[in-house]
Amino acid sequence: MRMITRTPASLHTIPHTSHESRASEAFSSAAEAPSAPNDWRAQLRDVIRSPQALLERLGLEREWLPGARDGHELFSIRVPEAYASRIRHDDPDDPLLRQVLPLDAETDVLDGYVTDPLEEAEHTPLPGLIHKYTNRVLLMASGGCAINCRYCFRRHFPYEDHQPSRAQWQDILDYLRADERIHEVILSGGDPLVSPDKRLAWLVESLGEIPHLKRLRIHTRLPVVIPDRVNDELLGWLGATRLQKVLVIHTNHANELDDAVAAAMTRLKSAGVTLLNQGVILRGVNDSVEVQTALAERLFECGVLPYYLHAFDPVQGAAHFAVSDEEACNLMEALLEHLPGFLMPRLVREVPGRRSKTPLSKPPLSKPTLSKPTVSKTHPGVDAATTDPSASSPAGDEREPSSLNLTGIIASA
Ligand code: SF4
User: What domains does the chain contain, in order, with CATH numbers?
Assistant: First the structure.
């Protein structure tokens, strides 16, 4: 059985270009040696890596060990201490624990659950580059993560086949230069921020020199799981690029957002970064209105706007997290009553072959609607437009269409 370890190791083979000397320095292994106790690299190195260590750290019974070992064989445990410290002691139902603790259910092989649910292998014109949407591309800037999330849709992704060589990185930059339709580059992985700052600085600087690129987007969970990752070096290269910067964190529960994460978000904002969150709807973690409401509220306190709530992708080994689309849509409908519109995440699914995300929603209620603008004469010689029935009411924008007497309006036309 193949164990997927995803040891962070990335961008080791960035190409030599006109930035030859800077690239060489950026990829020198001696360039960044861990020093201070709160250094993120030391925290990344010292993560919890075994079922036994995780159970002992959290005071859990040994009865969990056999299942944890089975799941760990398929996709290895990886939990930073900064994240473990937010998990309740001796509580197997803790929503953060459920995201990182392997279970024997991961060995189930079920119909419909596959290793590549998004069929990403179909959209990789070059190793390390995924080009699914016309004007944006995704670079696999890392094959490792700080944390291994049990539900990850890329838990089977063959990262070893997507570690570009020096020449291949040059090919990726050439590909971006040649296609002027591309306006946005998304750094993903794995987690792109496991890469050293000098390497990322080199890459982002190279991207900034491509004139038609407008935006840099970074998909990362590192500022959540190791907030010390948002250090001065990172803020330096982020602040230096001319590209507009969007950083999309990945959070599924408000308990993940402690004061250290909030402080990291404040630092990112100071560098001019737009902050968004994407999460996944997960059974036993966040499949309730209360939890989603608390998450959205806490995100906003931290300066982050909810962006996407991903419908569950049927990845093999994670079926125990599945929430049906119907349940997810019902939850979103109920959530509308608890959150202002600007805090509502969009429930979406990535459908293989489609050139955008697919929003999920319940079918509209079958109620009478106005098919075209109508005019009603309420007084002799005076036309009263009734194209929008709610417009005649001071509180019109708060009225439900179902409360309108549509039959009467149409009859008077
Ligand atoms: S969900 Fe994100 S952070 Fe978690 S294992 Fe997958 S890529 Fe890594």
Answer: 20-359 (3.20.20.70), 371-412 (no CATH)
145 lines ligand 1 (CB under 6 A): yes
Q: Please tell me which residue, 201 or 391, carries the higher pLDDT value.
A: 201
Task: Please state at what angle helix 197-208 crosses helix 232-240, rounded to 10 degrees.
Answer: 10
Which structure tokens are listed for 287? 């499949």
Q: For residue 31, is it left (φ>0), alpha (ψ between -120 and 50) or beta?
A: alpha
The Cα–Cα gap between 332 and 401 comes to 19
Chain-centre distance of CA 230, in angstroms? Answer: 17
- Stated pTM of the model: 0.82
Helix extents (H) in 85-196:
97-100, 166-178
Q: Which two tokens mark 363?
A: 């079918």
In whole angstroms, give the CA distance from residue 244 to residue 255: 30
Task: Please spell the DSSP secondary structure of 294-334, one letter per residue.
Answer: HHHHHHHHTT-EEEEEEPPP-BTT-GGG---HHHHHHHHHH
How far is ligand 1, taken at its centre, from the CA of residue 376, in Å?
Answer: 58
Digit-coded pLDDT (tens) for 34-84: 556 689 999 999 999 999 999 999 999 999 999 999 999 999 999 999 999
Binding site membership of 149 for ligand 1 (Cβ less than 6 Å) = yes
The length of the chain, given as a count of residues: 413
